[in-house]
Amino acid sequence: MKPDSSYTRRSTPLQPEPLKGKIFKRIKYESELERGFGQKIAKMAYGENLFSCIQCGTCSGTCPVSQYMDFTPRKIIMMVREGFSEDALNSLTIWLCASCYSCTVDCPKNIQITNVMYALKREAIERGIYPKKFPIPILSREFFKQVRKFGRNSETRLVINMYLKSNPFNMLKMAKMGIKLLKTGRMSLKQEMIKDRTHLSKMIDKIKQLNEEEK
Amino acid sequence: MTQYIYYPGCSVKSTGKVYEESLLSVFKYLDTPLKEIDDWNCCGATAYFSIDESEAFGLAARNLALAEKQFNGSKNLHIVAPCSACYLVLKKTQDYLNRDQELRRKIELGLNEVGLSYESFVQVRHPLDVVVNDIGLDKIKEKVTRPLRGLKVACYYGCQIVRPYRDFDHERNPMTMDNLVEALGGEPIDWPLKTRCCGGSLTGTIEEVGLRLSYIILREVRRRGADLVITTCPLCQFNLECYQERINKDFNESLEIPIIYFTQLMGLAFGISDKEIGIHRLFIPITKLAKLRKGGENVYV
After folding, report:
1. Which residues is B77 bridged to in the sheet?
2. Which pTM value belongs to this model?
3. Which chain B positions have a beta carbon within 8 Å of A49's beta carbon?
4. B10 → closest Cβ in A14, A177, A192
5. pLDDT tens track for B198-222
6. Is the pLDDT of residue B242 over 60?
7. Using one digit for the tens of pLDDT, what is the confidence trace for B135-162?
8. Model confidence at B186: pLDDT above 50
9. Binary contact (A136, B280; C-beta < 8 A)
10. Is the CB of B282 less than 8 angstroms away from the CB of A184?
11. What is the pLDDT of residues B77-121, one digit of tens each?
12. Closest partner residue to B50 among A105, A140, A176, by Cβ?
């Protein structure tokens, strides 16, 4: 089969946005390290073997989005382990991870890399240092709010809320698809919800309370 | 006797409506009617896990507990979750609740608060797994009334039904759906991107990345000469089908590949009416099949 010329990688990968205007610090000092950060993330991610990483780079090679990341998964693992918490939490990498689990199944050391990414996302949201106006954390938060309140999510409302809070002009691009979806009966603006909402919130509140007691 | 209970999930109720319609009618046709869990809630998907993990496990555990409560009669209970994300989240929850006793205690206290309990005898299954491994290809072959002779099908599995739990197939080169297509009389094509990521929610959030990931898959499908793609996940189907017009514009292409659910393909081979399996809701019509059926290039029996 003749190789397809369009297969070669294009030379315009996505530029990492939040790093614009910031001077990239090349030298890291030990004083910037956060002690125990690696242990904390490893515990959150059920990944005690995070520390057995041999830096082989299999995760970065197999990741379908690594070419768009500011730090590849291999670098993130090292940064977490060594305690560069600020760089790891500010990176785009953790938000670009689409949870396809390629790295997790390929890792020769059985590190649950996808779980590490989830743990970093949670930590970033907790500390409030995720990139502002960046749509992915906004989507997660909107999703969380909707499910917490109604027990189910309504895709159309979720997407509209996300665009309103990140980039409203993007909605215009979606109009054509929206009309098509409406015509084929695949979109509704109705808020989906469960019948017994107090049932669910009572349970979640209990779990939340137990979590706080633990802290 | 094995009891199947149906957990739809949010996507299947809106943009993935077609999936539900075709799934229910195909299962009915195969004498395995599915009953929905009453008052199920969202599984938590990937987004909830980015905010609070133990709450997310709680959400999923509530569904498992509801299933066990509503069908306590049979200990051989299987939840059928068609959406890949729901399937994985429910499986993951079971796995972590077994692994982490501290987490389990917390979740159980939460469930007890509302009079539920989770005994972990329920099993989580994907309908593809049920169709091929429980109902069996022999029975399917018997039930086929209009074999899909001459139809070249690309089977796209997506990521989360085979990774990280390689429950019923290989993580890179799964064959379950290919065998199913063969049983239906079609020709599965061999291609390497069966489980490559379609972009997931990135198509809506960071288009530059998401659309490109979908484009890579569609281009490979065309290069291999497939007539259509079958999928197992509402998000994959949505990305590959609904964004196809945008992909054509952004990458200066002229792709027109029908993307359908594997249940719809089964419905077509079983001769179930188009309306029952949601063919009329597709953006891109299956022209090739119509041609074959009229006895065009290959005579259709």
Report:
1. B3
2. 0.90
3. none
4. A192
5. 999 899 888 889 999 999 999 999 9
6. yes
7. 999 999 999 998 888 899 999 999 999 9
8. yes
9. no
10. yes
11. 999 999 999 999 999 999 999 999 999 999 999 999 999 999 889
12. A140
Task: For residue A147, give every residue at least 6 positions away whose Cβ sits within 8 Å of its Cβ, in sequence order, or none.
Answer: A153, B41, B42, B44, B48, B59
Structure-token pair, residue B216: 């890579």
CATH code for residues B137-300: 3.40.50.11810
Report whether B199 contacts B211 (CB < 8 A).
Answer: yes
Average pLDDT for chain B? 91
Question: What is the token pair recorded at B140?
Answer: 């399917």
On chain B, the residues whose CB falls within 8 A of the CB of A144 are 47-48, 51-52
**Residue in B48, B159, B245 closest to A144 by CB:** B48
Q: Would you call A184 and B280 a contact, using CB atoms and an 8 Å cutoff?
A: yes
DSSP annotation of B259: E
Cβ separation B41–A101 shorter than 8 A:
no
Structural domain boundaries in chain B = 3-125, 137-300
Domain B3-125 and domain B137-300, same fold? Reply is: no
**What pLDDT is recorded for position B294?**
66
Q: Residue A200: list chain B partners with CB under 8 A.
A: 41, 59, 62, 114
- Write the single-letter amino acid at B8: P
Contact list in B for residue A185 (CB cut-off 8 A) is: 17, 281
Q: How far apart are CA A60 and CA A69, in angstroms?
A: 10
Q: Which residue in B has a C-alpha nearest to residue A117's C-alpha? A: B50
Residue B207 burial (CB count, 10 A): 18
How many CA atoms lie less than 13 Å away from B289 in the CB half-sphere?
A: 23
**Residue numbers in chain A where pLDDT is lower than 50:** 3, 5-11, 19-21
Instruction: Say yes or no for a CB contact (<8 Å) between A185 and B281.
Output: yes
> Mean pLDDT of all residues in chain A?
84
Tell me whether residues A143 and B47 touch, CB distance under 8 A.
yes
Cβ pair A162:B205 closer than 8 A = yes
Complex ipTM: 0.89
| pLDDT given at position B299 | 46
Contact A186 B281 (CB under 8 A): yes
Q: B254: which 2 tokens?
A: 């002229």
Specify the fold of B3-125: Glutathione S-transferase Yfyf (Class Pi); Chain A, domain 2 (1.20.1050)
Name the DSSP class of B132: I
